[in-house]
Write a structure and sequence with these properties.
Blueprint: H1 2-10, H2 13-29, H3 37-40, H4 54-65, E1 72-79, H5 86-100, H6 121-124, E2 131-138, H7 146-160, E3 167-171, H8 172-207, H9 210-236, H10 244-272, H11 279-306, H12 314-317, H13 320-345, H14 365-375, H15 377-392, H16 413-424, E4 433-438, H17 442-454, E5 459-462, E6 466-467, E7 473-480, H18 487-503, E8 508-513, H19 514-548, H20 552-579, H21 588-619, H22 623-648, H23 656-688
Antiparallel strand pairs: 1-2, 1-3, 4-7, 4-8, 5-7, 6-7
Helix pairs in contact: 1-11, 1-13, 2-9, 2-13, 7-8, 8-9, 8-10, 8-16, 8-22, 9-10, 9-13, 10-11, 10-13, 10-22, 11-13, 11-19, 11-21, 14-22, 14-23, 15-20, 15-23, 17-18, 18-19, 19-20, 19-21, 20-21, 20-23, 21-22, 21-23, 22-23
Length: 728
């Protein structure tokens, strides 16, 4: 297959020109025929009720039987530090009239305040008398519709018109959704600019050639344009979903993976130029020899992302498809557009750098590392494992965080509003739990359920029963005395479900609300993590087994990558939760780290292990390990720095989950690059001996006998230089 690709893109100058022109035309035309990503982006919600879970069923029943619960509520918070006055009450009335009058914003369907519903004063005014709330349901508009955002902004203008010394804020689900869109709108541009600047700088340092640094960026730009266009068209048709997080990660993923794959190909091209003056023949040889590793790496990432389709949590299940499309696109661009563009640039592509690569040699950094690994493999392996296990111990402080509002890093109206509510109202009152009782003997069942729930420790109050307009269903509002998103509240919700169901065996009892949503999401996210981890392990072992034609080697590679994941997460939890005092770690961070760190770490595994096979067939065991490490060390180091740097850019994003994810990826990739791929894996292979390649016979009779004495790590005969005839 790689030979065919090489012939198509590097068969002649005319073919190379045709490939470049075709890609540029597609990148220029296709985006004009599709919506933009911003137009189809779904604000989503990692804590939304899951279909099939009890919280999802409770939500559906609530919306069906209680029309007053439909819509997305905005919560206006009015605070007077000295206490609410008649003037404040008049302001509440003014806001309510403005929001229900003839000039009311689109979608606003009434208000609930002390002016409209005096009997609800106990729940609308804080116990200290300083703060009151106005509930504004927005109905008939989707939260990802521009008109919804305009409505929320109009509510904010009306509410703040005569604020004076009062603090007036708009929060609640509507305010949070609007602010999420606003902060990501500005952050996406910043993310793109920083990523481009970082990658360009790193490529200039690595290649020392301006043109060779720009060509991969041009390829990434082509892939990004087409991915966003095709992805937006699919999202518009309802085939996939694109949320703010996946759009942000797409940017860094394509720049990181795209420049990595380009680096693998270009560096091998430079090696092949040592054997021939025909650039086109050298590129065909490079594609043939490294193209298989690049394609295997990219396809592994694509398949790993598609394992997310096994998830039951919508935010997880819908996350991977768009990113898989992007990786597939950058893979096609890398093996077609990039080599064609480099060939068309000619010798100018490498100016002022030497066009032909030098053999790194034994005295290079990685040559010295390779010598140490061969001389002291047990010490190197033991030291590496101790470091990784020690870092993984940071997971002991892992604290799941289900409070989405605490995930904001930027100061927003909704975040400040939530903080004011937290200070003024009992914690549980901000997100009550809803208990729905449906059955023929509803009155008896409801009283039994209410009594049982009141007896649960940590339940502050159970509201009066509210029957549905159509009858048959009764609603109870349950308030906890602590943080409704905290672990105790989530565990209590499980208890509430148990006692409520036992109290009314003849009725259907459903428990919903924010605590129930968070509980179901946490339970199902844990399930998804286990299923996806197993699926990825099987997938990666299969790919590595087929590529390396070995059994033990893939197990070693996967095991070290898994240890890298645990170490990276341990450092992340230790840094941001234990030391920096963040509320905890979103369930998404471990899951996303699993997908990307393991899948992308396999890239380096594939490059190193496939080169080991090549060198072992020439130099035998263990010298082939040293040669492979010496000749791929620089490439893997450069690729790891680029990928770690691009993911670190996510730390500029406005939510903590992306900051933690970007940090975990950067740490994990650096561990992969320098410790695991640079020392631990070669040391383990050296300790295992040729049997690590079973059933292959590499290192036994697959190559010349080695002249390296056991424990010496030095050559008795020179190693062939890169590109010498014996290497082909």
């Amino acid at each position: 297959m790689t030979s065919t690709i090489g012939a198509l893109v590097a068969g002649s100058r005319r073919r190379a020109l045709l490939v470049v022109v075709l890609w540029l035309l597609l990148a220029g035309v296709v985006p004009r025929l599709t919506p933009t990503v911003d137009e189809v982006k779904d604000p989503g919600g990692a804590n939304s009720p899951v279909a099939g879970a009890e919280s999802g069923a409770a939500r559906d029943l609530l919306l069906k039987e209680f029309p007053d619960q439909r819509g997305v509520p905005a919560i206006i918070v009015l605070r007077s530090p000295g206490g609410l006055t008649p003037a404040d009450e008049a302001e509440v009335a003014r806001i309510g009239q403005a929001l229900t009058g003839p000039d009311a914003p689109e979608g606003v369907d009434g208000v609930v305040s002390v002016a409209t519903t005096p009997q609800a004063k106990a729940s609308l005014v804080s116990p200290d008398g300083t703060t009151t709330t106005i509930i504004v349901p927005i109905r008939g508009l989707s939260s990802n519709d521009d008109r919804f955002l305009e409505t929320v902004e109009a509510i904010r203008k009306i509410a703040a018109k005569h604020a004076g010394d009062r603090e007036v804020l708009v929060t609640g689900p509507a305010g949070i959704a609007t602010d999420a869109v606003k902060v990501f709108k500005d952050a996406d541009l910043v993310l793109l600019l920083i990523t481009v600047a970082l990658v360009l700088g790193l490529l200039l340092i690595i290649y020392r050639s301006p043109l060779l640094a720009l060509i991969p960026l041009l390829g990434v730009g082509v892939a990004l344009q087409l991915t966003e266009a095709v992805g937006a068209a699919l999202a518009d048709a309802g085939v996939i979903t694109i949320d703010a997080s996946s759009a942000s990660i797409m940017t860094v993923l394509l720049f990181g993976a795209g420049t990595d794959y380009a680096l693998f190909l270009v560096m091998r091209f430079r090696e092949e130029l040592a054997t021939t003056t025909d650039r086109y023949a050298a590129m065909r040889a490079a594609i043939r020899r490294v193209g298989g590793a690049v394609l295997s790496s990219g396809l592994t990432v694509v398949l790993a992302l598609l394992t997310l389709l096994l998830a039951v949590v919508p935010a997880t299940r819908e996350f991977g498809s768009f990113l898989a499309l992007g990786v597939a696109m950058i893979l096609l661009v890398t093996v077609t557009f990039l080599p064609a563009a480099v060939l068309l640039a000619g010798k100018a592509a490498f100016w002022p750098m030497r066009q032909v690569a030098r053999d790194p040699g034994e005295l290079s950094f990685w040559g010295r590392v390779g010598a140490v690994v061969l001389r002291r493999p047990l010490a190197v392996a033991a030291s590496g494992l101790v470091v990784l296990v020690a870092l993984a111990l940071g997971l002991v402080g892992y604290t799941p965080n289900s409070n989405l509002i605490s995930d904001f890093r930027a100061e927003t109206d909704s975040l400040r509003g939530q903080q004011v509510l937290d200070e003024a109202f009992p914690a549980g009152q901000l997100a009550p739990t809803t208990v729905l009782v449906r059955g023929d003997a509803a009155a008896q069942d409801v009283e039994a359920v209410a009594a049982a729930v009141r007896g649960v420790e940590g339940v502050a109050s159970v509201g009066r029963p509210v029957p549905a307009p159509g009858g048959g269903v009764v609603r109870l509002q349950v308030v906890y005395d602590d943080d409704p998103y905290g672990t105790p509240a989530l565990e209590r919700t499980g208890t509430v479900r148990e006692v409520a169901s036992r109290a009314a065996p003849g009725a259907e009892v459903l428990v919903g609300g924010e605590s129930a949503n968070a509980l179901d999401n946490r339970t199902l996210n844990a399930r998804d993590f286990r299923i996806i981890a197993v699926a990825m392990a099987v997938l990666i072992l299969t790919v590595l087994g087929l590529l390396l034609r070995a059994v033990a080697a893939p197990l070693v590679l996967l095991g070290t990558t898994a240890l890298s994941l645990m170490s990276a997460l341990g450092v992340t939890v230790l840094t941001w939760v234990t030391f920096a005092g963040q509320a905890g770690t979103s369930d998404r961070v471990p899951l996303y780290s699993l997908i990307f760190l393991v899948a992308l770490g396999v890239d380096y595994n594939i490059l190193l292990a496939s080169r080991m096979r090549e060198e072992l067939a020439i130099h035998g065991f263990p010298e082939g390990i040293r040669v492979a490490l010496t000749r791929t060390g620089g490439v893997i180091t450069s690729a790891g720095l680029i990928l770690a740097g691009t993911f670190a850019v996510l730390m500029t994003q406005p939510i903590n989950s992306l900051l933690q994810f970007g940090f975990a990826m950067a740490v994990g990739l650096l561990l992969d690059t320098f410790l695991i791929r640079g020392a631990l894996v070669p040391a383990l292979f050296r300790l295992a001996g040729p049997r690590v390649w079973y059933p292959s016979r590499l290192g036994r009779d697959g190559g010349p006998s080695t002249t390296v004495e056991e424990g010496s790590g030095t050559d008795r005969t020179p190693v062939p230089a890169v590109g010498e005839p014996g290497r082909d």
